Amino acid sequence: MPTINKRELTEVLSSSQKKYKPSKKIISQANVKNYEAVLKEAARNPEKFWEEAAQDLEWFKPWDKVLDASKKPFFKWFTCAKCNLAYNALDRHIGTKTEKNKAIIWEDEAGRTRQYAYLELYQEVNKLVNALRGIGAKKGDRIAIYMPNIPEIAFAMLACAKIGAIHSVVYAGFSAAALADRIKDARAKILFTADGSFRRGKVINLKEIADSAVKSCKTIKKVIVAKNNNEKVKFNKSKDIWYKDFVKGQPTEAKCARMDSEDPAFVLYTSGTTSKPKGVVHAHGGYPVGVLRTIKWVFDLKGDEIFWCTADPGWITGHSYIIYGPLLAGVTT
User: Fold this and answer.
1) Is the pTM of this model over 0.90?
2) b/e 164-203 (16+ beta carbons within 10 angstroms → b)
């Protein structure tokens, strides 16, 4: 068998200029029918382009200005507008035909499955919203999420956004030290985790790792633990609570916080392979406008389709194309 030169292969792939022209039928059904014309118009008038993109979402209060570039290199999008990321990803679908469609189809390594229609997801998120508000969580609070790929990670992200808290999802493959670093930098008050997780056929005691991290994190006041694989875990009765008990008996309706377009929705840390991890902030206004436009145009998603992304919610790809993007588009993830 001939030896493959990885450098040569990379150069060949990088310089590939092949184009695959879609059929007329595909073009006629596509969300973008004339890419060249759209590209030209977007380059000519980018503010108009993004203003039109923003019309695909719902706003509690419209913007005064699409882009404020008066303090370069710091830019503000959709100034003075009021909105909410979770409202656009979930609440606005309730009362429409989308509420009966599947929002989430979940299956794990062990073959267990769960499914949630949009209305069911809305109710699960609202129970968590009410539980969080019950312990004093509010707009501007930072909440860390260190969970495996289970539906509760989506519940937690959406609930945080709905109350205006800033979520910081930490990849569940990271060590206790890496988790602690991110909790400390974000000054998180609450941590979501699970008893354990499955990864590459192995069982990982996630709660044990979380406990080790929390020991050095004085800001954490409450640890909410989802039961995933029935791992034996140690419990601090003054701080820890099972997720199921936390949301038990909570109402399935909850008000959505009115957020400024520039208010942070979440902070996601870089991997830190070259230096200290850097927290990248994404806002309630600009982030969903960009993500919805890309998932509808780049992936050509439509309302009755299922979108599968082999990523992890711990990274921006997972945020955008497992959780928020598909839900913003009203499709199944």
Assistant:
1) yes
2) bbbbbbbbbebebebbbbbbbbbebbbbbbbbbbbeeeee
Q: Using one digit for the tens of pLDDT, what is the confidence trace for 187-222?
A: 999 999 999 988 877 888 999 999 999 999 999 999
Does residue 128 lie in a domain region? yes
Neighbours of 77 (CB within 10 A): 22
- Looking up tokens 């014309």 gives 37
In a domain, 2, yes or no: no
Handedness of CA 193, 194, 195, 199 (dihedral sign): negative
Spatial distance between the Cα atoms of 269 and 319, rounded to a whole number of angstroms: 12
- Asked if residue 212 is part of any domain, the answer here is yes
- Cβ contacts of residue 258 below 8 Å, gap of 6+? 60, 61, 82, 83, 84
- Domains: count for the chain: 1
Ramachandran angles phi, psi of 154, nearest 5°? -70, -40
- pLDDT averaged over every residue in the chain: 94
Contact 225, 233 (CB under 8 A): yes
pLDDT band at 11 (very low <50, low <70, confident <90, very high): low
| Cross-strand pairs, 167 | 143, 266
Tell me whether residue 76 is in a domain.
Answer: no
Length of the chain: 333
d(CA 239, CA 35): 54
End-to-end Cα separation, the chain, in angstroms: 41
**Structural domain for 310, as ranges:** 32-66+81-329
Query: Among the listed ranges 120-129, 202-211, 239-248, which one has the minimum average pLDDT value?
Result: 202-211
List, for residues 162-172, the tens digit of each pLDDT value. 999 999 999 99
**What's 160's domain CATH number?**
3.40.50.12780
- Residue 189: per-residue pLDDT: 98
